[in-house]
Structures are given as structure tokens and as C-alpha cells.
Fold this sequence. Notes:
The protein is α/β, with parallel strands linked by helices and about 300 residues long. Helix content is about 40%, strand content about 15%.
Amino acid sequence: MAPASFNQAAETTVCVLDASGRLGSNLVERLLRRGYTVHAAVQTRHGELNYLEGLSCKNSKLRIFESDPLDYHSILDALKGCTGLFYSFEPPHDHPIYDDYMVEMEVRAAHNVLEACAQTNTIDKVVFTSSATAVNWRGSDNATSSDLDERNWSDVNFCRKYKLWHALSKTLAEKTAWALAMDRGVNMVSVNGGLMLSPDLTITDPYMKGAAEMYEDGVFVTVDVRFMVDAHICVFEDVSSYGRYLCFNHVINCNEDAVKLANMLLPSPASSHPLSSEGTKVYQQRISNKKLNKLMVDFNSGLQVE
């Protein structure tokens, strides 16, 4: 099984795919610090690849693989000898925009990755990165008064109708992964993250489609990169983890928070204008991350190998 404690990390080899993204590169660095041997699977991205190659020169526990989630055999190569996989989809460099083509691509990638895991007999656990957008778009026909949690799924017909491509892509890809994992007996957990905050985040991030509606519904959530990484490692290391985990550490539900986010996303002078004039109005939070918070109570993110 996956390591139940930090002490077992030194004997564990895991794969991070795609290691070239914001989440993946941070995961690689943190896993190395905790003592894991890491297979970093990347698409050809010069900046991130140079950074990982620099790490590999300093750490013999890091191996870099060029791997395309649409190339089944390249995934198998990266997984050889690994007991765990951290998988997050990164749009290809030549097609960074979410649209109906990207939906098809992400679903195919999820199928390839889970099939490769099923064919790799050393894999004991898969941590599948999904999104809160695979949870929070219910549509008017499915709207209820209850708060959203991991039991909820976004309405794919609603997402397709309003061209919420990011939500549609994450929902269908995650459902594909779960169907294959259950059919092939792969031990999988998913982390459904909010909008991940980082210095390079812009207003064009595909998560932002429908931001105003998420804000007014009380389901617009964000997550720091560090917390997102901690959540992934926690659900991997804890043998009691199961199913889906909503991952966020902030809810954007008041004008002050919305303005702060706008200042982060928009260049000056546009950043000086608030998103709305509603003053002190606060929208009720309608989404819960209690399941993850309970799991992480005893998680020590600071543990590392000297």
C-alpha cells in the first residue's frame, strides 16, 4: 500500500505527471524533500524542464522522463518501478485554451493514464488532480438549498450549453478516471482544487469562466499552491483516504475579497476598479471542504529529509 507514514517515504518511488506545471513542479520539490524517489514526467516545456534538470543535478532521487499523456507507452515508461502516481493534466503548449477540443483531449489523457496504472503492477495508489469546477456547476434544474461537497458533480449538459469548457473537461475527465479505476481495481483518490493562486495567474485562466456566478452562489473558492501540494501528499500518505476531496483554503464571497483578487489578476490601472459596488454584502458560503480538513488535522507538511 502507499506509505502510511513519512518514515516509509525513503523507500518509495512515485511519479508526478505532468511535472512541468505549477502544481507538478512544486509537488516534485516537496516530495524530494520528504525523501521520496521521484519520476518527473514532463511534456517538452523549456523553462520548467530546465528547472527540473537543475534539481536532478542536485538530487540523485530525481529522474526526468519526457511523457505525453496522449502517448500510452510514454506513460508506462515513466511509471516503471513506481508505487504511486500524482496526475494533473496540463494543456499542451501549442493549445493552452479550453474548448471542446481540449475536453476531448483531457478525457483521452485521463483514460490513458488510468489504463497505464492498471497495467503497472507496482502502482498501489493514484492521486488524480481534478477541480472544484467539477463540483459546483449544478444548473438551475439541479439547484438545491443544500451546500455542495464531494458528493456533487457539475451538470455536463449545463456546462456544455453555456460553454463552461474547463468545468466540462474536468468533470468528464474525472468521471472517466473513476469509471476506469473502479472497473480495473485501481486505488484512486481525487483532489478537487479551487482556483490555484500563483504569481503567474491571470484573468484568462480557464477556471475564471463564470466567476461572477460562482461568486454570487458562494462557491468561488481559491487555494494556495502550498496547501494544494500538502493536500496531495496527505491523501497519498494516509491509508484511510478515499474518494474525492474538495481542496481550498479561501472563499471569495464578499466585495473586499473580490477586489483583492481583481488586483492580483488585472494590470494597472484596471486593478484600481472594484468588481462590484455592493459594498459590504457577503454571500453565504455554499461549499464545504470538511472532509479534507478532517483528514489533514495531523498532517505535518514540514517534515523533510536533511
